[in-house]
Amino acid sequence: MRLRYTCIHLQRSPREANIHELRSPRAVVRPRIACYNGFVMNWWKENKLQRRLYVCIALLFAAAFAYYAIARADTLAGLFAAALSCLLFALCTLRTLDVALSSFTAEPLPSPDARLGRRSSRRDKRHPWARIILFMLITRLFLFALAYALRATGGVYEGGIWDTLQACWLKSDSPSYLGIAENWYVTEGDPRFHIVFFPFYPICIAVCNCITGNSFVSAMLVSSLCAIASAIFIYEIAALDYPRETALRAIKFLFLTPAAFFFAAPMTESLFLLCSLACVYLVRKGHFLWGCLLGALASFTRSLGVILLAFVFVEWLYAFLRAKRIETFGETRKAFIWKGLCMLLIPLGLAGYIFINYAVTGDPFKFMQYQKEHWSQGFGLFFETAAYQTEYALSAAAEGNLRQLFGLWLPNLIYSFGALGLIAAAAKRLRPSYLVYFLAYFAVAIGATWLLSAPRYLAACFPLALALAACADTRRKDAIATAVSLAGLVAYLSMYVNGYPVY
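Now predict its structure.
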Protein backbone atom coordinates (compact mmCIF):
# COMPACT_ATOMS: atom_id res chain seq x y z
CA MET A 1 0.00 0.00 0.00
CA ARG A 2 2.87 2.37 0.78
CA LEU A 3 4.33 1.91 -2.70
CA ARG A 4 1.00 2.54 -4.44
CA TYR A 5 0.37 5.64 -2.35
CA THR A 6 3.83 6.95 -3.13
CA CYS A 7 3.22 6.65 -6.85
CA ILE A 8 -0.10 8.48 -6.65
CA HIS A 9 1.40 11.08 -4.40
CA LEU A 10 4.02 11.87 -7.01
CA GLN A 11 1.38 12.41 -9.68
CA ARG A 12 -1.30 14.30 -7.69
CA SER A 13 -1.63 16.44 -4.63
CA PRO A 14 -2.10 14.57 -1.31
CA ARG A 15 -5.75 15.61 -1.21
CA GLU A 16 -6.42 14.31 -4.74
CA ALA A 17 -4.57 11.10 -3.95
CA ASN A 18 -6.69 10.41 -0.88
CA ILE A 19 -9.93 11.13 -2.78
CA HIS A 20 -8.82 8.85 -5.60
CA GLU A 21 -8.09 6.01 -3.17
CA LEU A 22 -11.49 6.39 -1.53
CA ARG A 23 -13.47 6.53 -4.76
CA SER A 24 -11.75 3.83 -6.77
CA PRO A 25 -9.48 1.49 -4.81
CA ARG A 26 -9.44 -1.02 -7.68
CA ALA A 27 -8.01 1.58 -9.99
CA VAL A 28 -5.10 1.83 -7.60
CA VAL A 29 -4.49 -1.90 -7.56
CA ARG A 30 -4.66 -2.59 -11.29
CA PRO A 31 -1.88 -0.26 -12.52
CA ARG A 32 0.47 -1.19 -9.66
CA ILE A 33 3.28 -2.51 -11.87
CA ALA A 34 2.92 0.29 -14.39
CA CYS A 35 2.86 2.82 -11.57
CA TYR A 36 6.01 1.32 -10.09
CA ASN A 37 7.77 1.41 -13.45
CA GLY A 38 6.67 5.01 -13.89
CA PHE A 39 8.00 5.82 -10.45
CA VAL A 40 11.38 4.29 -11.31
CA MET A 41 11.56 6.15 -14.60
CA ASN A 42 10.63 9.44 -12.97
CA TRP A 43 13.20 8.86 -10.26
CA TRP A 44 15.88 8.06 -12.86
CA LYS A 45 15.11 11.24 -14.77
CA GLU A 46 14.82 13.58 -11.79
CA ASN A 47 17.70 12.39 -9.59
CA LYS A 48 20.57 13.24 -11.89
CA LEU A 49 23.22 13.45 -9.16
CA GLN A 50 22.29 10.08 -7.67
CA ARG A 51 22.11 8.53 -11.14
CA ARG A 52 25.60 9.75 -11.97
CA LEU A 53 26.96 8.48 -8.67
CA TYR A 54 25.41 5.07 -9.34
CA VAL A 55 27.01 4.90 -12.76
CA CYS A 56 30.41 6.00 -11.46
CA ILE A 57 30.35 3.42 -8.66
CA ALA A 58 29.29 0.65 -11.05
CA LEU A 59 32.05 1.57 -13.51
CA LEU A 60 34.64 1.70 -10.73
CA PHE A 61 33.82 -1.79 -9.49
CA ALA A 62 33.60 -3.13 -13.03
CA ALA A 63 37.03 -1.73 -13.89
CA ALA A 64 38.62 -3.12 -10.70
CA PHE A 65 37.14 -6.56 -11.28
CA ALA A 66 38.08 -6.54 -14.97
CA TYR A 67 41.68 -5.77 -14.04
CA TYR A 68 41.71 -8.67 -11.59
CA ALA A 69 40.03 -11.07 -14.03
CA ILE A 70 42.49 -10.29 -16.82
CA ALA A 71 45.72 -9.98 -14.83
CA ARG A 72 45.38 -12.27 -11.80
CA ALA A 73 42.50 -14.74 -12.07
CA ASP A 74 43.59 -18.39 -11.88
CA THR A 75 40.60 -20.74 -11.67
CA LEU A 76 36.94 -20.50 -12.62
CA ALA A 77 35.86 -21.14 -9.01
CA GLY A 78 38.10 -18.35 -7.75
CA LEU A 79 36.82 -16.01 -10.44
CA PHE A 80 33.21 -16.77 -9.48
CA ALA A 81 33.93 -16.16 -5.78
CA ALA A 82 35.65 -12.87 -6.59
CA ALA A 83 32.73 -11.80 -8.79
CA LEU A 84 30.20 -12.61 -6.06
CA SER A 85 32.22 -10.73 -3.43
CA CYS A 86 32.59 -7.71 -5.70
CA LEU A 87 28.89 -7.75 -6.58
CA LEU A 88 27.78 -7.93 -2.94
CA PHE A 89 30.14 -5.15 -1.94
CA ALA A 90 28.89 -2.99 -4.81
CA LEU A 91 25.30 -3.66 -3.70
CA CYS A 92 26.20 -2.60 -0.14
CA THR A 93 27.83 0.54 -1.53
CA LEU A 94 24.79 1.50 -3.60
CA ARG A 95 22.44 0.90 -0.68
CA THR A 96 24.71 2.98 1.53
CA LEU A 97 24.47 5.79 -1.00
CA ASP A 98 20.67 5.48 -0.99
CA VAL A 99 20.49 5.61 2.81
CA ALA A 100 22.96 8.49 3.03
CA LEU A 101 21.17 10.71 0.51
CA SER A 102 17.78 10.09 2.07
CA SER A 103 19.10 10.63 5.60
CA PHE A 104 20.95 13.84 4.77
CA THR A 105 17.79 15.38 3.29
CA ALA A 106 15.29 14.15 5.89
CA GLU A 107 14.51 15.26 9.41
CA PRO A 108 16.08 13.15 12.19
CA LEU A 109 13.85 10.46 13.63
CA PRO A 110 12.57 10.91 17.21
CA SER A 111 14.37 9.08 19.98
CA PRO A 112 12.99 5.62 20.85
CA ASP A 113 12.70 6.90 24.43
CA ALA A 114 9.86 9.18 23.32
CA ARG A 115 7.59 6.14 22.99
CA LEU A 116 8.31 4.85 26.49
CA GLY A 117 5.96 5.23 29.40
CA ARG A 118 6.93 6.64 32.78
CA ARG A 119 7.70 3.20 34.22
CA SER A 120 9.74 2.03 31.23
CA SER A 121 11.75 5.26 31.09
CA ARG A 122 13.10 4.88 34.61
CA ARG A 123 16.88 4.72 34.73
CA ASP A 124 17.05 1.09 35.88
CA LYS A 125 14.72 0.11 33.02
CA ARG A 126 16.23 2.34 30.36
CA HIS A 127 19.86 1.57 31.32
CA PRO A 128 19.88 -2.04 32.63
CA TRP A 129 23.61 -2.08 33.23
CA ALA A 130 23.38 -4.57 36.11
CA ARG A 131 21.62 -7.11 33.86
CA ILE A 132 24.13 -6.53 31.09
CA ILE A 133 27.09 -7.05 33.44
CA LEU A 134 25.49 -10.21 34.83
CA PHE A 135 24.92 -11.52 31.30
CA MET A 136 28.52 -10.86 30.36
CA LEU A 137 29.90 -12.50 33.51
CA ILE A 138 27.80 -15.59 32.83
CA THR A 139 28.94 -15.77 29.20
CA ARG A 140 32.61 -15.32 30.20
CA LEU A 141 32.35 -18.18 32.70
CA PHE A 142 30.47 -20.24 30.12
CA LEU A 143 33.24 -19.74 27.55
CA PHE A 144 36.02 -20.62 30.02
CA ALA A 145 34.20 -23.75 31.21
CA LEU A 146 33.27 -24.78 27.66
CA ALA A 147 36.82 -24.30 26.40
CA TYR A 148 38.16 -26.41 29.28
CA ALA A 149 35.60 -29.16 28.62
CA LEU A 150 36.24 -29.18 24.88
CA ARG A 151 39.98 -29.36 25.47
CA ALA A 152 39.56 -32.19 27.94
CA THR A 153 37.34 -34.19 25.58
CA GLY A 154 40.06 -33.86 22.94
CA GLY A 155 42.10 -36.41 24.87
CA VAL A 156 44.91 -34.05 25.92
CA TYR A 157 45.81 -33.58 29.60
CA GLU A 158 48.25 -30.80 30.48
CA GLY A 159 48.61 -31.71 34.16
CA GLY A 160 46.14 -29.40 35.89
CA ILE A 161 43.34 -26.88 35.55
CA TRP A 162 45.66 -23.92 35.22
CA ASP A 163 47.87 -25.58 32.62
CA THR A 164 44.80 -26.63 30.64
CA LEU A 165 43.40 -23.09 30.65
CA GLN A 166 46.67 -21.73 29.31
CA ALA A 167 46.79 -24.46 26.66
CA CYS A 168 43.24 -23.47 25.63
CA TRP A 169 43.79 -19.75 25.26
CA LEU A 170 47.48 -19.10 24.59
CA LYS A 171 47.29 -19.56 20.84
CA SER A 172 47.70 -17.57 17.64
CA ASP A 173 48.94 -14.03 18.49
CA SER A 174 48.42 -14.29 22.27
CA PRO A 175 52.01 -15.27 23.23
CA SER A 176 53.32 -12.30 21.23
CA TYR A 177 51.23 -9.81 23.20
CA LEU A 178 52.32 -11.35 26.48
CA GLY A 179 55.94 -11.21 25.34
CA ILE A 180 55.64 -7.47 24.59
CA ALA A 181 54.00 -6.88 27.98
CA GLU A 182 56.89 -8.59 29.77
CA ASN A 183 59.91 -7.54 27.68
CA TRP A 184 58.67 -4.68 25.48
CA TYR A 185 59.89 -4.71 21.86
CA VAL A 186 63.26 -6.33 21.20
CA THR A 187 65.48 -6.40 18.12
CA GLU A 188 67.02 -9.88 18.31
CA GLY A 189 65.81 -13.43 17.82
CA ASP A 190 62.30 -14.46 16.88
CA PRO A 191 60.69 -11.91 19.27
CA ARG A 192 61.95 -9.13 17.00
CA PHE A 193 58.90 -9.85 14.84
CA HIS A 194 56.66 -8.72 17.71
CA ILE A 195 57.09 -5.18 16.42
CA VAL A 196 54.17 -5.86 14.03
CA PHE A 197 51.77 -5.95 17.01
CA PHE A 198 50.40 -2.66 18.30
CA PRO A 199 51.36 -1.65 21.85
CA PHE A 200 48.24 -0.50 23.71
CA TYR A 201 46.99 -3.96 24.70
CA PRO A 202 50.43 -5.09 26.00
CA ILE A 203 50.67 -1.80 27.93
CA CYS A 204 47.34 -2.56 29.62
CA ILE A 205 48.59 -6.05 30.49
CA ALA A 206 51.81 -4.62 31.95
CA VAL A 207 49.83 -2.18 34.09
CA CYS A 208 47.58 -4.98 35.33
CA ASN A 209 50.68 -7.06 36.11
CA CYS A 210 51.37 -4.67 38.97
CA ILE A 211 48.33 -6.23 40.66
CA THR A 212 48.29 -9.83 39.47
CA GLY A 213 51.98 -10.52 38.84
CA ASN A 214 51.01 -12.90 36.01
CA SER A 215 50.77 -11.84 32.38
CA PHE A 216 48.29 -14.54 31.39
CA VAL A 217 45.92 -13.65 34.23
CA SER A 218 46.31 -9.95 33.43
CA ALA A 219 45.55 -10.52 29.74
CA MET A 220 42.43 -12.54 30.48
CA LEU A 221 41.31 -9.94 33.01
CA VAL A 222 41.84 -7.02 30.60
CA SER A 223 39.96 -8.83 27.83
CA SER A 224 37.04 -9.73 30.09
CA LEU A 225 36.68 -6.25 31.58
CA CYS A 226 36.87 -4.64 28.14
CA ALA A 227 34.23 -7.06 26.84
CA ILE A 228 31.87 -6.16 29.70
CA ALA A 229 32.34 -2.44 29.11
CA SER A 230 31.85 -2.98 25.37
CA ALA A 231 28.51 -4.66 26.04
CA ILE A 232 27.29 -1.55 27.87
CA PHE A 233 28.47 0.72 25.07
CA ILE A 234 26.89 -1.35 22.27
CA TYR A 235 23.61 -1.29 24.18
CA GLU A 236 23.72 2.48 24.64
CA ILE A 237 24.65 3.00 20.99
CA ALA A 238 21.85 0.75 19.75
CA ALA A 239 19.35 2.37 22.12
CA LEU A 240 19.93 5.73 20.41
CA ASP A 241 18.17 4.41 17.29
CA TYR A 242 16.27 1.24 18.21
CA PRO A 243 13.86 0.00 20.89
CA ARG A 244 15.31 -1.52 24.03
CA GLU A 245 14.61 -5.09 22.88
CA THR A 246 16.68 -4.55 19.74
CA ALA A 247 19.50 -2.99 21.76
CA LEU A 248 19.60 -6.04 24.03
CA ARG A 249 19.66 -8.32 20.99
CA ALA A 250 22.67 -6.38 19.71
CA ILE A 251 24.58 -7.39 22.85
CA LYS A 252 23.60 -11.00 22.40
CA PHE A 253 24.64 -11.21 18.77
CA LEU A 254 27.88 -9.31 19.36
CA PHE A 255 29.06 -11.78 22.00
CA LEU A 256 27.43 -15.07 20.98
CA THR A 257 28.37 -15.27 17.29
CA PRO A 258 30.93 -17.96 16.32
CA ALA A 259 34.08 -15.81 16.51
CA ALA A 260 32.96 -13.97 19.66
CA PHE A 261 35.13 -16.18 21.86
CA PHE A 262 38.09 -14.05 20.74
CA PHE A 263 36.72 -11.33 23.04
CA ALA A 264 37.51 -13.63 25.97
CA ALA A 265 40.94 -14.65 24.64
CA PRO A 266 44.19 -12.84 25.55
CA MET A 267 44.10 -10.90 22.30
CA THR A 268 43.52 -7.30 21.37
CA GLU A 269 39.93 -7.62 20.04
CA SER A 270 38.12 -6.68 23.28
CA LEU A 271 40.21 -3.58 23.88
CA PHE A 272 39.91 -2.50 20.26
CA LEU A 273 36.14 -3.00 20.36
CA LEU A 274 35.83 -0.98 23.57
CA CYS A 275 37.83 1.97 22.23
CA SER A 276 35.88 1.90 18.96
CA LEU A 277 32.46 1.77 20.64
CA ALA A 278 33.42 4.50 23.12
CA CYS A 279 34.46 6.68 20.19
CA VAL A 280 31.18 6.01 18.37
CA TYR A 281 29.02 6.71 21.43
CA LEU A 282 30.76 9.95 22.36
CA VAL A 283 30.64 11.26 18.79
CA ARG A 284 26.96 10.35 18.54
CA LYS A 285 26.37 12.37 21.71
CA GLY A 286 28.23 15.34 20.21
CA HIS A 287 31.46 15.01 22.23
CA PHE A 288 33.84 14.99 19.27
CA LEU A 289 37.00 15.78 21.26
CA TRP A 290 36.66 12.91 23.72
CA GLY A 291 35.34 10.59 21.02
CA CYS A 292 38.31 11.24 18.74
CA LEU A 293 40.71 10.76 21.65
CA LEU A 294 39.19 7.31 22.17
CA GLY A 295 39.51 6.79 18.43
CA ALA A 296 43.22 7.57 18.75
CA LEU A 297 43.47 4.83 21.39
CA ALA A 298 41.71 2.46 18.99
CA SER A 299 44.30 3.23 16.31
CA PHE A 300 46.99 2.71 18.98
CA THR A 301 45.49 -0.75 19.54
CA ARG A 302 45.08 -1.88 15.93
CA SER A 303 45.70 -0.31 12.55
CA LEU A 304 41.99 -0.65 11.73
CA GLY A 305 41.28 1.98 14.36
CA VAL A 306 42.09 4.63 11.77
CA ILE A 307 38.92 3.54 9.92
CA LEU A 308 36.95 5.38 12.61
CA LEU A 309 37.79 8.50 10.63
CA ALA A 310 35.16 7.39 8.10
CA PHE A 311 32.47 7.15 10.79
CA VAL A 312 33.35 10.47 12.43
CA PHE A 313 33.50 12.30 9.10
CA VAL A 314 30.03 11.10 8.04
CA GLU A 315 28.56 12.10 11.43
CA TRP A 316 30.23 15.52 11.12
CA LEU A 317 28.95 15.92 7.57
CA TYR A 318 25.41 14.96 8.63
CA ALA A 319 25.43 17.57 11.40
CA PHE A 320 26.91 20.15 9.03
CA LEU A 321 24.28 19.62 6.32
CA ARG A 322 21.45 19.65 8.84
CA ALA A 323 22.69 22.94 10.29
CA LYS A 324 22.87 24.41 6.79
CA ARG A 325 19.35 23.22 6.05
CA ILE A 326 17.84 24.82 9.15
CA GLU A 327 20.01 27.90 8.71
CA THR A 328 21.92 27.64 11.98
CA PHE A 329 25.36 27.02 10.52
CA GLY A 330 26.41 30.65 10.95
CA GLU A 331 25.77 30.43 14.68
CA THR A 332 27.88 27.29 15.11
CA ARG A 333 30.60 27.76 12.48
CA LYS A 334 33.42 27.73 15.03
CA ALA A 335 32.01 24.59 16.63
CA PHE A 336 31.95 22.76 13.29
CA ILE A 337 35.50 23.81 12.50
CA TRP A 338 36.58 22.61 15.94
CA LYS A 339 34.85 19.25 15.47
CA GLY A 340 36.46 18.87 12.07
CA LEU A 341 39.89 19.48 13.57
CA CYS A 342 39.18 16.91 16.28
CA MET A 343 39.17 14.22 13.59
CA LEU A 344 42.90 14.76 13.18
CA LEU A 345 43.40 13.19 16.61
CA ILE A 346 42.39 9.69 15.45
CA PRO A 347 45.52 8.99 13.32
CA LEU A 348 47.74 10.04 16.24
CA GLY A 349 47.49 6.52 17.66
CA LEU A 350 48.96 5.09 14.46
CA ALA A 351 51.56 7.87 14.45
CA GLY A 352 52.57 6.88 17.99
CA TYR A 353 53.02 3.28 16.91
CA ILE A 354 55.12 4.37 13.93
CA PHE A 355 57.28 6.42 16.30
CA ILE A 356 57.80 3.34 18.48
CA ASN A 357 58.96 1.46 15.37
CA TYR A 358 61.48 4.20 14.72
CA ALA A 359 62.65 4.33 18.34
CA VAL A 360 63.15 0.56 18.56
CA THR A 361 64.43 -0.38 15.09
CA GLY A 362 65.45 2.91 13.50
CA ASP A 363 62.90 2.34 10.72
CA PRO A 364 59.40 3.85 11.23
CA PHE A 365 57.86 1.32 8.83
CA LYS A 366 59.69 -1.79 10.01
CA PHE A 367 56.39 -3.44 10.85
CA MET A 368 55.35 -3.34 7.19
CA GLN A 369 58.59 -5.02 6.15
CA TYR A 370 58.15 -7.82 8.70
CA GLN A 371 54.48 -8.28 7.80
CA LYS A 372 55.41 -8.77 4.18
CA GLU A 373 58.47 -10.97 4.74
CA HIS A 374 57.29 -13.05 7.71
CA TRP A 375 53.50 -13.16 7.22
CA SER A 376 53.22 -12.44 3.47
CA GLN A 377 50.75 -9.66 4.23
CA GLY A 378 50.25 -6.43 2.33
CA PHE A 379 47.47 -4.44 0.71
CA GLY A 380 45.25 -6.17 -1.83
CA LEU A 381 41.73 -6.35 -3.24
CA PHE A 382 39.05 -7.78 -0.96
CA PHE A 383 37.48 -9.85 -3.74
CA GLU A 384 40.88 -11.32 -4.58
CA THR A 385 40.89 -12.66 -1.01
CA ALA A 386 37.59 -14.43 -1.71
CA ALA A 387 39.15 -15.96 -4.82
CA TYR A 388 42.24 -17.51 -3.25
CA GLN A 389 40.39 -18.60 -0.11
CA THR A 390 37.88 -20.44 -2.30
CA GLU A 391 40.68 -22.07 -4.26
CA TYR A 392 42.45 -23.21 -1.08
CA ALA A 393 39.17 -24.50 0.35
CA LEU A 394 38.53 -26.63 -2.73
CA SER A 395 42.12 -27.87 -2.67
CA ALA A 396 41.86 -28.81 1.03
CA ALA A 397 38.60 -30.65 0.34
CA ALA A 398 40.14 -32.55 -2.57
CA GLU A 399 43.13 -33.57 -0.44
CA GLY A 400 40.93 -34.59 2.50
CA ASN A 401 42.55 -31.99 4.77
CA LEU A 402 39.47 -31.41 6.91
CA ARG A 403 41.35 -29.50 9.61
CA GLN A 404 42.25 -26.72 7.20
CA LEU A 405 38.93 -26.85 5.41
CA PHE A 406 36.71 -26.52 8.51
CA GLY A 407 39.12 -24.67 10.78
CA LEU A 408 40.50 -22.10 8.35
CA TRP A 409 39.02 -21.62 4.90
CA LEU A 410 35.30 -22.25 5.39
CA PRO A 411 34.99 -19.93 8.44
CA ASN A 412 36.83 -17.19 6.54
CA LEU A 413 34.53 -17.51 3.52
CA ILE A 414 31.35 -17.80 5.58
CA TYR A 415 32.18 -14.72 7.62
CA SER A 416 33.20 -12.63 4.61
CA PHE A 417 30.19 -13.45 2.44
CA GLY A 418 27.85 -13.51 5.42
CA ALA A 419 28.92 -10.02 6.50
CA LEU A 420 28.27 -8.59 3.03
CA GLY A 421 24.91 -10.31 2.74
CA LEU A 422 23.84 -9.17 6.19
CA ILE A 423 24.73 -5.53 5.57
CA ALA A 424 23.02 -5.58 2.17
CA ALA A 425 19.85 -6.90 3.81
CA ALA A 426 19.90 -4.49 6.77
CA ALA A 427 21.25 -1.36 5.07
CA LYS A 428 17.99 0.58 5.32
CA ARG A 429 17.91 -0.02 9.09
CA LEU A 430 21.40 1.34 9.80
CA ARG A 431 22.83 4.83 10.00
CA PRO A 432 24.87 5.98 6.99
CA SER A 433 27.93 6.46 9.21
CA TYR A 434 27.77 2.81 10.31
CA LEU A 435 27.48 1.64 6.71
CA VAL A 436 30.41 3.75 5.54
CA TYR A 437 32.47 2.49 8.48
CA PHE A 438 31.65 -1.12 7.58
CA LEU A 439 32.56 -0.66 3.92
CA ALA A 440 35.91 0.92 4.75
CA TYR A 441 36.61 -1.65 7.49
CA PHE A 442 35.74 -4.59 5.23
CA ALA A 443 37.77 -3.32 2.28
CA VAL A 444 40.90 -2.85 4.41
CA ALA A 445 40.60 -5.89 6.70
CA ILE A 446 39.55 -8.43 4.07
CA GLY A 447 41.83 -6.86 1.47
CA ALA A 448 44.93 -7.98 3.36
CA THR A 449 46.96 -10.49 1.34
CA TRP A 450 47.22 -14.03 2.74
CA LEU A 451 44.36 -13.37 5.13
CA LEU A 452 43.76 -16.09 7.74
CA SER A 453 41.81 -14.18 10.41
CA ALA A 454 38.68 -12.82 8.71
CA PRO A 455 36.29 -14.11 11.44
CA ARG A 456 38.36 -12.49 14.21
CA TYR A 457 38.65 -9.19 12.36
CA LEU A 458 34.97 -9.02 11.45
CA ALA A 459 33.87 -9.98 14.96
CA ALA A 460 35.08 -6.54 16.10
CA CYS A 461 33.12 -4.72 13.36
CA PHE A 462 30.19 -3.49 15.47
CA PRO A 463 27.71 -2.64 12.62
CA LEU A 464 27.32 -6.37 11.99
CA ALA A 465 25.81 -6.91 15.45
CA LEU A 466 23.43 -3.99 14.94
CA ALA A 467 22.43 -5.32 11.52
CA LEU A 468 21.72 -8.81 12.85
CA ALA A 469 19.75 -7.43 15.79
CA ALA A 470 17.67 -5.27 13.45
CA CYS A 471 16.96 -8.15 11.05
CA ALA A 472 16.03 -10.66 13.78
CA ASP A 473 12.95 -8.61 14.64
CA THR A 474 10.53 -11.50 15.26
CA ARG A 475 10.64 -14.31 17.78
CA ARG A 476 11.16 -16.91 15.10
CA LYS A 477 14.00 -15.03 13.41
CA ASP A 478 15.58 -14.28 16.78
CA ALA A 479 15.39 -17.92 17.87
CA ILE A 480 16.87 -19.19 14.60
CA ALA A 481 19.69 -16.63 14.60
CA THR A 482 20.49 -17.37 18.26
CA ALA A 483 20.54 -21.14 17.74
CA VAL A 484 22.75 -20.90 14.66
CA SER A 485 25.11 -18.47 16.43
CA LEU A 486 25.47 -20.66 19.51
CA ALA A 487 26.06 -23.81 17.45
CA GLY A 488 28.71 -22.00 15.43
CA LEU A 489 30.31 -20.64 18.61
CA VAL A 490 30.62 -24.10 20.17
CA ALA A 491 32.00 -25.64 16.96
CA TYR A 492 34.48 -22.83 16.28
CA LEU A 493 35.70 -22.72 19.89
CA SER A 494 36.15 -26.50 19.86
CA MET A 495 38.38 -26.26 16.81
CA TYR A 496 40.33 -23.38 18.34
CA VAL A 497 41.17 -25.06 21.66
CA ASN A 498 41.98 -28.39 20.00
CA GLY A 499 44.65 -27.03 17.70
CA TYR A 500 42.85 -26.47 14.40
CA PRO A 501 44.32 -23.66 12.26
CA VAL A 502 42.01 -21.00 13.73
CA TYR A 503 43.67 -17.61 13.78
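The chain has 25 helices and no strands.
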